[in-house]
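User: Hello! My lab partner asked me to get a predicted holo structure for this protein. The small molecule is guanosine-5'-triphosphate, SMILES included with the sequence. Please write out the C-alpha coordinates.
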Amino acid sequence: MTDAVDVRIPITLLTGFLGSGKTTVLNNLLKPSFWERLLHAPPLTAVIMNEFGSIGLDHQLVGDTQGPMALLNGGCVCCEIQGSLVPTLKNLWMGRRDGKIPPYERIIIETTGIADPTPILETLLRSEWVAKRHYLDGVVTTVDAVFGNGQLDQHFEALRQVAGADRLLLTKTDLADATTIQQLESRLASLNPSAPISHVQHGNVNPDNIFKLRAYHPSEPVKAKQWLAADNFRVITASLPLKQPSILNASAPSHGGTDRRIRSFSLTFDHPLPWAGVSEALDTLVEFCSHRLLRMKAIINVQEYLGRPIVLHAVQHLFYPSVELPAWQTASKRFTC
Ligand SMILES: Nc1nc2c(ncn2[C@@H]2O[C@H](COP(=O)(O)OP(=O)(O)OP(=O)(O)O)[C@@H](O)[C@H]2O)c(=O)[nH]1
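Assistant: Hello! Below are the C-alpha coordinates for the protein in complex with guanosine-5'-triphosphate.
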Protein backbone atom coordinates (compact mmCIF):
# COMPACT_ATOMS: atom_id res chain seq x y z
CA MET A 1 0.00 0.00 0.00
CA THR A 2 1.35 3.49 -0.74
CA ASP A 3 0.94 6.87 0.93
CA ALA A 4 -1.42 7.90 -1.86
CA VAL A 5 -4.01 5.22 -1.15
CA ASP A 6 -3.59 4.55 2.53
CA VAL A 7 -6.15 6.69 4.30
CA ARG A 8 -5.79 4.91 7.60
CA ILE A 9 -4.76 6.90 10.66
CA PRO A 10 -1.13 6.52 11.75
CA ILE A 11 -0.43 5.64 15.36
CA THR A 12 2.83 6.50 17.09
CA LEU A 13 3.73 4.70 20.27
CA LEU A 14 5.76 7.03 22.50
CA THR A 15 7.48 5.13 25.24
CA GLY A 16 10.52 5.52 27.49
CA PHE A 17 11.47 4.89 31.08
CA LEU A 18 10.06 6.89 34.01
CA GLY A 19 10.93 10.56 33.78
CA SER A 20 12.89 10.19 30.54
CA GLY A 21 11.06 13.07 28.87
CA LYS A 22 8.09 11.55 27.01
CA THR A 23 5.59 14.21 28.07
CA THR A 24 8.09 16.99 27.38
CA VAL A 25 8.51 15.73 23.80
CA LEU A 26 4.76 15.26 23.40
CA ASN A 27 4.08 18.72 24.72
CA ASN A 28 6.29 20.27 22.08
CA LEU A 29 4.75 18.25 19.29
CA LEU A 30 1.29 19.45 20.23
CA LYS A 31 2.19 23.14 20.49
CA PRO A 32 1.18 25.19 17.45
CA SER A 33 4.11 27.56 18.19
CA PHE A 34 6.56 24.67 17.79
CA TRP A 35 5.27 24.03 14.29
CA GLU A 36 5.18 27.71 13.35
CA ARG A 37 8.96 27.74 13.57
CA LEU A 38 9.01 24.85 11.13
CA LEU A 39 6.67 26.73 8.82
CA HIS A 40 4.31 23.82 8.95
CA ALA A 41 0.75 23.51 10.17
CA PRO A 42 0.63 21.14 13.17
CA PRO A 43 -1.04 17.84 12.32
CA LEU A 44 -4.25 17.52 14.30
CA THR A 45 -3.29 14.84 16.79
CA ALA A 46 -5.33 12.69 19.15
CA VAL A 47 -3.43 11.70 22.27
CA ILE A 48 -3.96 8.64 24.41
CA MET A 49 -2.11 8.96 27.69
CA ASN A 50 -1.59 5.98 29.90
CA GLU A 51 -0.72 6.64 33.50
CA PHE A 52 -0.10 4.16 36.19
CA GLY A 53 -1.95 5.94 38.99
CA SER A 54 -5.73 6.01 39.23
CA ILE A 55 -5.61 9.79 38.93
CA GLY A 56 -3.73 10.88 35.85
CA LEU A 57 -1.56 13.97 36.10
CA ASP A 58 0.48 14.00 32.92
CA HIS A 59 -2.37 15.25 30.75
CA GLN A 60 -2.45 18.36 32.92
CA LEU A 61 1.16 18.95 31.94
CA VAL A 62 0.26 18.90 28.28
CA GLY A 63 -0.39 22.43 27.13
CA ASP A 64 -2.44 23.67 24.23
CA THR A 65 -3.72 20.86 22.12
CA GLN A 66 -6.36 21.20 19.46
CA GLY A 67 -6.95 17.47 19.15
CA PRO A 68 -8.80 15.14 21.51
CA MET A 69 -7.13 13.51 24.48
CA ALA A 70 -8.10 10.20 26.05
CA LEU A 71 -6.79 9.02 29.39
CA LEU A 72 -6.08 5.45 30.38
CA ASN A 73 -5.44 5.45 34.10
CA GLY A 74 -5.13 2.90 36.84
CA GLY A 75 -2.63 0.52 35.32
CA CYS A 76 -0.32 -0.11 32.49
CA VAL A 77 -1.75 -0.58 29.02
CA CYS A 78 0.79 -3.33 28.40
CA CYS A 79 -0.77 -5.50 31.10
CA GLU A 80 -3.50 -4.59 33.65
CA ILE A 81 -5.57 -2.42 31.34
CA GLN A 82 -4.46 -3.81 27.99
CA GLY A 83 -8.12 -4.48 27.15
CA SER A 84 -8.94 -0.75 27.32
CA LEU A 85 -6.82 0.28 24.38
CA VAL A 86 -8.98 -0.94 21.50
CA PRO A 87 -12.24 0.44 23.05
CA THR A 88 -10.49 3.78 23.54
CA LEU A 89 -9.42 3.83 19.89
CA LYS A 90 -13.00 2.92 18.93
CA ASN A 91 -14.47 5.75 20.98
CA LEU A 92 -12.10 8.23 19.42
CA TRP A 93 -12.78 6.97 15.93
CA MET A 94 -16.56 7.03 16.35
CA GLY A 95 -16.41 10.54 17.84
CA ARG A 96 -14.36 11.64 14.83
CA ARG A 97 -16.70 9.91 12.36
CA ASP A 98 -19.78 11.47 13.96
CA GLY A 99 -18.23 14.94 14.05
CA LYS A 100 -18.25 15.02 17.85
CA ILE A 101 -14.51 15.45 18.09
CA PRO A 102 -12.09 17.19 15.73
CA PRO A 103 -11.00 15.18 12.69
CA TYR A 104 -7.59 14.18 13.99
CA GLU A 105 -5.02 13.02 11.44
CA ARG A 106 -2.80 10.95 13.70
CA ILE A 107 -2.67 9.41 17.14
CA ILE A 108 0.12 9.38 19.70
CA ILE A 109 -0.09 6.89 22.54
CA GLU A 110 2.14 7.81 25.47
CA THR A 111 2.80 4.77 27.62
CA THR A 112 3.68 4.65 31.28
CA GLY A 113 7.38 4.74 32.08
CA ILE A 114 7.42 1.07 32.99
CA ALA A 115 5.49 -0.24 30.02
CA ASP A 116 6.73 -3.09 27.92
CA PRO A 117 5.85 -1.92 24.39
CA THR A 118 5.60 -5.41 22.90
CA PRO A 119 2.14 -6.39 24.22
CA ILE A 120 0.86 -2.95 23.18
CA LEU A 121 2.16 -3.52 19.66
CA GLU A 122 0.50 -6.89 19.67
CA THR A 123 -2.82 -5.35 20.65
CA LEU A 124 -2.54 -2.75 17.90
CA LEU A 125 -1.39 -5.10 15.21
CA ARG A 126 -3.67 -7.97 16.05
CA SER A 127 -6.99 -6.19 16.19
CA GLU A 128 -8.65 -6.35 12.79
CA TRP A 129 -10.83 -3.40 13.68
CA VAL A 130 -7.78 -1.28 14.50
CA ALA A 131 -5.81 -2.45 11.46
CA LYS A 132 -8.63 -1.54 9.08
CA ARG A 133 -8.67 2.05 10.26
CA HIS A 134 -5.17 2.64 11.57
CA TYR A 135 -1.62 1.62 10.98
CA LEU A 136 1.26 1.58 13.39
CA ASP A 137 3.65 4.28 12.22
CA GLY A 138 6.40 3.45 14.69
CA VAL A 139 7.68 3.16 18.22
CA VAL A 140 9.62 6.14 19.55
CA THR A 141 11.53 5.65 22.80
CA THR A 142 13.00 8.38 24.97
CA VAL A 143 16.15 7.51 26.90
CA ASP A 144 17.47 9.73 29.68
CA ALA A 145 21.09 10.67 28.91
CA VAL A 146 21.88 10.97 32.61
CA PHE A 147 20.09 7.95 34.10
CA GLY A 148 19.63 5.79 31.02
CA ASN A 149 22.61 3.51 31.68
CA GLY A 150 21.52 2.69 35.22
CA GLN A 151 17.92 2.17 34.13
CA LEU A 152 19.04 -0.26 31.44
CA ASP A 153 21.07 -2.15 34.06
CA GLN A 154 18.27 -2.39 36.55
CA HIS A 155 14.98 -2.49 34.66
CA PHE A 156 14.17 -5.03 32.01
CA GLU A 157 11.31 -2.79 30.82
CA ALA A 158 13.85 -0.11 29.90
CA LEU A 159 15.74 -2.66 27.78
CA ARG A 160 12.58 -3.76 26.03
CA GLN A 161 11.57 -0.17 25.34
CA VAL A 162 14.93 0.37 23.65
CA ALA A 163 14.93 -2.94 21.81
CA GLY A 164 11.42 -2.37 20.46
CA ALA A 165 12.04 1.18 19.21
CA ASP A 166 12.07 2.41 15.65
CA ARG A 167 13.59 5.73 16.77
CA LEU A 168 15.51 6.49 19.93
CA LEU A 169 15.48 9.98 21.42
CA LEU A 170 18.37 10.60 23.76
CA THR A 171 16.94 13.27 26.06
CA LYS A 172 18.55 15.63 28.57
CA THR A 173 21.81 15.73 26.67
CA ASP A 174 22.21 19.21 28.16
CA LEU A 175 22.70 17.54 31.55
CA ALA A 176 25.09 14.70 30.69
CA ASP A 177 28.79 14.83 29.89
CA ALA A 178 30.15 13.81 26.50
CA THR A 179 31.63 10.49 27.70
CA THR A 180 28.37 9.36 29.33
CA ILE A 181 26.46 10.26 26.19
CA GLN A 182 28.91 8.41 23.97
CA GLN A 183 28.86 5.26 26.11
CA LEU A 184 25.09 5.26 26.28
CA GLU A 185 24.82 5.77 22.54
CA SER A 186 27.02 2.79 21.77
CA ARG A 187 25.03 0.67 24.20
CA LEU A 188 21.78 1.73 22.53
CA ALA A 189 23.24 0.97 19.10
CA SER A 190 24.19 -2.47 20.30
CA LEU A 191 20.77 -3.15 21.79
CA ASN A 192 18.90 -1.92 18.76
CA PRO A 193 21.09 -1.43 15.68
CA SER A 194 18.16 -0.53 13.44
CA ALA A 195 16.89 2.49 15.38
CA PRO A 196 18.48 5.85 14.56
CA ILE A 197 19.38 7.88 17.66
CA SER A 198 18.69 11.62 17.96
CA HIS A 199 19.70 13.99 20.72
CA VAL A 200 16.84 15.98 22.19
CA GLN A 201 16.97 18.82 24.67
CA HIS A 202 13.85 20.01 26.45
CA GLY A 203 11.64 18.13 24.04
CA ASN A 204 12.87 20.05 21.04
CA VAL A 205 12.53 17.19 18.62
CA ASN A 206 12.57 17.10 14.86
CA PRO A 207 9.07 15.87 13.89
CA ASP A 208 10.66 13.80 11.12
CA ASN A 209 12.09 11.61 13.87
CA ILE A 210 8.62 10.90 15.18
CA PHE A 211 6.14 10.99 12.34
CA LYS A 212 5.93 9.21 8.98
CA LEU A 213 8.32 6.49 10.07
CA ARG A 214 6.17 3.80 8.46
CA ALA A 215 8.21 1.34 10.43
CA TYR A 216 5.71 -1.47 9.99
CA HIS A 217 4.79 -0.44 6.53
CA PRO A 218 7.77 -0.11 4.22
CA SER A 219 6.17 0.95 0.97
CA GLU A 220 9.20 1.62 -1.19
CA PRO A 221 12.54 -0.12 -1.62
CA VAL A 222 14.40 2.95 -0.39
CA LYS A 223 12.40 3.03 2.82
CA ALA A 224 12.70 -0.69 3.19
CA LYS A 225 16.48 -0.41 3.14
CA GLN A 226 16.48 2.25 5.87
CA TRP A 227 13.88 0.25 7.74
CA LEU A 228 16.07 -2.83 7.78
CA ALA A 229 19.30 -0.97 8.63
CA ALA A 230 21.06 -4.26 8.10
CA ASP A 231 24.47 -2.65 7.80
CA ASN A 232 24.38 -1.87 11.51
CA PHE A 233 23.99 -5.47 12.59
CA ARG A 234 26.57 -8.04 13.31
CA VAL A 235 26.28 -10.46 10.44
CA ILE A 236 26.00 -14.20 10.69
CA THR A 237 26.57 -15.77 7.30
CA ALA A 238 24.17 -18.61 6.99
CA SER A 239 23.94 -21.27 4.35
CA LEU A 240 21.23 -23.55 3.14
CA PRO A 241 19.38 -25.53 4.32
CA LEU A 242 17.47 -22.91 6.22
CA LYS A 243 16.16 -25.10 8.97
CA GLN A 244 19.35 -25.28 10.89
CA PRO A 245 19.76 -25.36 14.62
CA SER A 246 22.61 -22.86 14.23
CA ILE A 247 20.14 -20.24 13.03
CA LEU A 248 17.73 -20.87 15.84
CA ASN A 249 20.47 -20.74 18.39
CA ALA A 250 22.29 -17.87 16.76
CA SER A 251 23.66 -15.76 19.54
CA ALA A 252 26.18 -13.45 18.01
CA PRO A 253 27.51 -11.05 20.58
CA SER A 254 26.08 -7.59 20.34
CA HIS A 255 28.47 -4.78 19.38
CA GLY A 256 29.41 -3.86 22.88
CA GLY A 257 28.84 -7.32 24.25
CA THR A 258 27.62 -5.85 27.54
CA ASP A 259 23.88 -6.53 27.43
CA ARG A 260 23.54 -10.25 27.64
CA ARG A 261 19.80 -10.16 28.09
CA ILE A 262 19.06 -8.76 24.65
CA ARG A 263 21.08 -9.46 21.53
CA SER A 264 20.66 -8.45 17.95
CA PHE A 265 22.09 -9.96 14.83
CA SER A 266 21.40 -10.33 11.14
CA LEU A 267 21.50 -13.29 8.81
CA THR A 268 22.36 -12.94 5.15
CA PHE A 269 22.13 -15.46 2.36
CA ASP A 270 23.93 -15.06 -0.94
CA HIS A 271 21.41 -16.95 -3.03
CA PRO A 272 17.66 -16.73 -3.54
CA LEU A 273 15.78 -18.91 -1.11
CA PRO A 274 12.88 -21.25 -1.76
CA TRP A 275 9.69 -19.92 -0.18
CA ALA A 276 8.94 -23.30 1.37
CA GLY A 277 12.31 -23.22 3.16
CA VAL A 278 11.77 -19.68 4.41
CA SER A 279 8.34 -20.52 5.63
CA GLU A 280 9.53 -23.68 7.38
CA ALA A 281 12.37 -21.80 9.06
CA LEU A 282 9.96 -19.13 10.29
CA ASP A 283 7.54 -21.76 11.61
CA THR A 284 10.42 -23.37 13.48
CA LEU A 285 11.49 -20.00 14.84
CA VAL A 286 7.98 -19.37 16.14
CA GLU A 287 7.68 -22.83 17.61
CA PHE A 288 10.97 -22.86 19.47
CA CYS A 289 12.04 -19.26 19.97
CA SER A 290 9.02 -16.98 19.91
CA HIS A 291 9.14 -16.36 23.65
CA ARG A 292 12.68 -15.05 23.19
CA LEU A 293 12.13 -13.12 19.99
CA LEU A 294 11.41 -9.41 20.42
CA ARG A 295 11.43 -8.20 16.87
CA MET A 296 12.33 -9.51 13.45
CA LYS A 297 12.59 -7.70 10.13
CA ALA A 298 13.53 -9.24 6.81
CA ILE A 299 13.87 -8.47 3.13
CA ILE A 300 13.98 -11.72 1.23
CA ASN A 301 15.03 -12.70 -2.24
CA VAL A 302 12.68 -15.61 -2.83
CA GLN A 303 13.20 -17.97 -5.76
CA GLU A 304 9.53 -17.87 -6.71
CA TYR A 305 9.41 -14.03 -6.72
CA LEU A 306 12.72 -13.14 -8.32
CA GLY A 307 13.06 -9.39 -8.80
CA ARG A 308 10.41 -8.59 -6.20
CA PRO A 309 11.72 -8.24 -2.66
CA ILE A 310 9.49 -9.67 0.04
CA VAL A 311 9.36 -7.80 3.31
CA LEU A 312 8.49 -9.59 6.53
CA HIS A 313 8.31 -8.52 10.11
CA ALA A 314 7.30 -9.94 13.44
CA VAL A 315 6.80 -8.83 17.00
CA GLN A 316 7.40 -11.78 19.28
CA HIS A 317 5.39 -14.69 17.89
CA LEU A 318 3.19 -12.48 15.77
CA PHE A 319 4.16 -12.53 12.10
CA TYR A 320 2.54 -10.05 9.76
CA PRO A 321 1.44 -10.59 6.18
CA SER A 322 4.37 -10.23 3.82
CA VAL A 323 4.63 -7.10 1.69
CA GLU A 324 5.93 -7.30 -1.86
CA LEU A 325 8.05 -4.37 -3.05
CA PRO A 326 8.16 -3.41 -6.72
CA ALA A 327 11.94 -3.77 -7.16
CA TRP A 328 15.29 -4.14 -5.47
CA GLN A 329 16.98 -0.87 -4.74
CA THR A 330 20.53 -2.08 -5.29
CA ALA A 331 22.26 -4.88 -7.07
CA SER A 332 22.42 -6.79 -3.80
CA LYS A 333 19.52 -9.17 -3.42
CA ARG A 334 20.67 -11.00 -0.39
CA PHE A 335 18.14 -12.29 2.09
CA THR A 336 18.70 -10.29 5.21
CA CYS A 337 16.82 -10.52 8.43
N1 LIG B 1 17.30 19.58 31.56
C1 LIG B 1 16.40 18.87 30.89
N2 LIG B 1 15.28 18.47 31.52
C2 LIG B 1 14.38 17.73 30.82
C3 LIG B 1 14.59 17.38 29.46
N3 LIG B 1 13.53 16.64 29.04
C4 LIG B 1 12.72 16.53 30.10
N4 LIG B 1 13.20 17.18 31.17
C5 LIG B 1 12.62 17.27 32.50
O1 LIG B 1 12.58 15.95 33.04
C6 LIG B 1 11.44 15.80 33.87
C7 LIG B 1 10.65 14.58 33.43
O2 LIG B 1 10.18 14.84 32.13
P1 LIG B 1 8.79 14.25 31.61
O3 LIG B 1 8.59 14.75 30.23
O4 LIG B 1 7.69 14.46 32.57
O5 LIG B 1 9.15 12.71 31.60
P2 LIG B 1 8.16 11.47 31.33
O6 LIG B 1 8.95 10.45 30.63
O7 LIG B 1 6.92 11.94 30.66
O8 LIG B 1 7.85 11.05 32.81
P3 LIG B 1 6.82 9.92 33.34
O9 LIG B 1 5.50 10.20 32.69
O10 LIG B 1 6.80 10.13 34.81
O11 LIG B 1 7.39 8.62 32.99
C8 LIG B 1 10.66 17.10 33.76
O12 LIG B 1 10.99 17.90 34.87
C9 LIG B 1 11.19 17.72 32.47
O13 LIG B 1 11.11 19.14 32.49
C10 LIG B 1 15.80 17.83 28.82
O14 LIG B 1 16.10 17.54 27.65
N5 LIG B 1 16.66 18.55 29.59
